Amino acid sequence: MKGKELNFEKIKQEIEACGECERLRSHCVSIAREKKRQFREESYWGKPVPGFGDAKAKLLIVGLAPAAHGANRTGRMFTGDQSGLWLYRAVYKAGFSNQPTSAHREDGLRLKEAFITAVARCAPPANKPLPSEIEACSRFLKAELEQLNCVRAFLALGSVALRGLWRVLPEDVKPFGKLPEFSHGGEIRLRDGRMIFCSYHPSQQNTFTKKLTEPMFDQIFNRVKIFLQRG
């Protein structure tokens, strides 16, 4: 376990030090300097954000990218914004964490058999990373996945997350010639028996318009939990 922890620490350090995408780094630094009035007394993280969770995770949750005033502020995935409120509430109800909220890196949150990451590690302008930026970040998702050798289920939050996850999966576990079309509630069984579950991203655009409701989100997590319990 110690060796795995050291490897995760190395991945974390490499992510935080990355400056490959000039557009993203410039945007994140600018946001961290200007701040949002609500958080003007806080020190923003402003760096690329590493994954977070249990090194023995059975569930890997993959999102899109840090939010400008969420993870770009707090330094922890899905922490400090409305998407995080939805995600961590669902994670807790499904039994994958010790508390239902995620406010900052020192709030005592611990994930249990789950790990949360994203296909892009810097907050992008308009919440839209470029394909080239996702490609540049893919090595970090691949490195995390290689360390998470207990993972049996994946949860892709949105079509971009699904494509990013698909890119880093070993070719010999992919059951199709090309990536299946994304759909909320969709399931993709890999050749090694693992499963990809798909859900709409809990963005404000999706939750405010009721495209994604709390029962819909909970249902996805319940299906994940049942799949894992079946062994």
Key terms:
6-stranded mixed beta sheet, Uracil-DNA Glycosylase, subunit E, alpha/beta, single chain, 40% helix, 231 residues, 8 helices
Summarize it.
The protein is of the alpha/beta class and 231 residues long. Helices cover 40% and strands 11% of the residues. It has a single domain (2-229), classed as Uracil-DNA Glycosylase, subunit E (3-Layer(aba) Sandwich), CATH 3.40.470.
General description of the model:
Helices cover 40% and strands 11% of the residues. Strand 5 and strand 6 form a beta hairpin. The mean pLDDT is 95. By secondary structure, it is of the alpha/beta class. The chain starts with a helix and ends with a helix.
CATH topology (fold) name: Uracil-DNA Glycosylase, subunit E
CATH superfamily placement? Uracil-DNA glycosylase-like domain
- Determine the N-to-C terminus distance: 22 Å
Beta-strand share of residues: 5-15%
Which value, in Å, is the CA radius of gyration?
Answer: 17 Å
CATH architecture: 3-Layer(aba) Sandwich
Q: How many distinct beta strands? A: 6
Q: Average pLDDT value?
A: 95
Which CATH class? Alpha Beta
Give the helix proportion (percent range): 40-55%
Q: H/E order of the elements?
A: HHEEHHEHEHEEHH
The order of strands across the largest sheet is 1-3-2-4-6-5
- The total tally of domains equals 1
Describe the largest sheet. 6 strands, mixed
Topology:
Blueprint: H1 2-17, H2 22-34, E1 52-53, E2 59-63, H3 71-74, H4 82-93, E3 114-118, H5 131-147, E4 153-157, H6 159-168, E5 187-189, E6 195-199, H7 204-208, H8 214-229
Parallel strand pairs: 2-3, 2-4, 4-6
Antiparallel strand pairs: 1-3, 5-6
Helix pairs in contact: 1-5, 4-8, 5-6
